[in-house]
Design goal:
626 residues, mainly alpha, Serine Threonine Protein Phosphatase 5, Tetratricopeptide repeat, 30 helices, 72% helix
Length: 626
Amino acid sequence: MIGVCRMDQENNLNRSSRIYAICLLILVAGGLYLNSLGNLFTNWDDSMIYANPQIKRLDWGNILEVFTLREGATYQPIRVVSYAIDYHFWKLNPLGYHITNIFFYILTCIMVYFTLFHLSMYLRERVSSDSHERVAIGGALLFAAHPVHVEAVTWLAARKEVLQGFFFFLAFYLYLKGKEREEGQKIIFPGLVLLAICLAILSKPSAVVFPAVLLIYEIARRQNRWIEVVKKHRLFFTLSVVTSLFFAFVLIKAMFDAGGIKTYHGGTFFSNLLVSFYVFLYNIKLLIFTINYSAAYAIRVSYPVLCLQTLSIISITLLLFGLSLWSLKKTKVIFFSFLFFFITLLPYLNIIPISTVLADRYAFIASFSYCFLLGIGFDKLYTHTRKRFSEGFFKLLSVTLFLFLLGSYSFMTIQQNRIWENSYTLWSDAVEKYPESNTANALLGVVYMDLRMDEEAAEYLEKAVQILPIDYESRNNLGIVYGRLDRPEKALKELLTAISLKPDSNSIKINLSVFYQRQKEFKKAEEILKYLISKDSKDARLYFRLGLLYKEMGNYEAAISELMRASELAPHIINPFEELGNIYISKIKDVEKGKYYYNKGIEAAAKAKLKVEDLRWMIQDLEGHE
């Protein structure tokens, strides 16, 4: 009878109401992000999109390569394939990438709506179907409008968040839906759930927590009988746990290989664990109390970590856990929502220390539980009655407060989209709001570097390394800036420090060789490049740099040899051909050979329009003087 009743409740969510709800979510989720369509790429997008050769081919060979596990690289193949599709149609026009992000965000919001309806139906059994509908659409609208999601939607390199969100909630919805129909379809729904969660994990590996979400749902719904459910569906749970453990291992290994796992905050595992309590409460603050969202934050942790402030934070966190456990017997939704929030944040709590301690995007999935509770709260107020108030008073109050909160969130989201307009607007805003953020200062310094405003770049990069002395990237950039400012002693010190912090970085060593070249210490520059070539003989940029070094030294024969090797290793890069043409024309005075290499460069990189146009003009000019 209970199953029939629940089926009837779902049938009450008729086709027309579904269509209205979906249309409303499309209007809100899509409309709020319309002003992000004109935003440019930021310098956070460079390595993932702008300078990523993997996205520039959309063929089966490249897709297979994308799905191949590689040492030292992140493993998010669904995201990379989505960029490849965008590049196929839009090349490097950011408009198309923004449209795709918004599209998947809309899909995520729609899946949140259906998931909320089913969750409300199973965890709130004594309320009407109308109540479930109000909770579902109210919670989904607040989810769609919440400004904490701007980073996940507007930052193009955060595509993984909206992809993961769609597949994560699709998997959860299919699980809930399958429980209704398990008698007739025991294989189809579990299979679809496993497929959806695999896609979520392949979009972003933090989705490995999904089996734990299912477990807390079963505990909340059945309390003492959840073990029976796990036993009954042991094959499904075993496969989901094994899948998650495998990808968790892949994630941790990739982070270790790529240097994504940092030193313990405070120096020890115990102090680092205490910092995790700070991170947890800061994420709650991010959802409920923050009005100034930012691309970078500075968490104020007291040192030594074990102090009165830390003990207070631990006490508050344990109290919240205690209240959620106590609520299990009376209010299932509080138990489920709190533990859903905790479990989906678990990969980001810095128990294993990562480079970014707090970020808006980390709360993307977790915010679902907050919106669920808000939806229930507004619904309870909507149905509340008191004798001394008129029948419609609380309905009006509930709707008014809901619209006020929705409007406030919408306003903040639209404002935050403008902040992500370009690299300068993004990082100048972050520095203004959180001047003690290493990330904000470091990346604003990079913006000024790109603008060749080196004095300003040095100011922010110096602040970045003052905040985080082990920031090897900022030290490397400082070395470059000091070199351009003709401060050789400072430049050398920063580059050597960067190498000591990141000894396996070829890029920093190349920058050191460029520094020596500018100082006319050619022998030292040559030694570095030859050492790097001995370690990696397939890196075209090393031969290119060595060719430029020999050209400056006047050893044109050696320069030609190295540039030829670079062109063989990177046949689609125009620069080696251009430099070969320059040497033959200006140094060896062989115009025909120079024109030959210019033409080779044009053939090799026809899509490099500006360079190609320059070379064509040079060839035309040479032919005009013959």
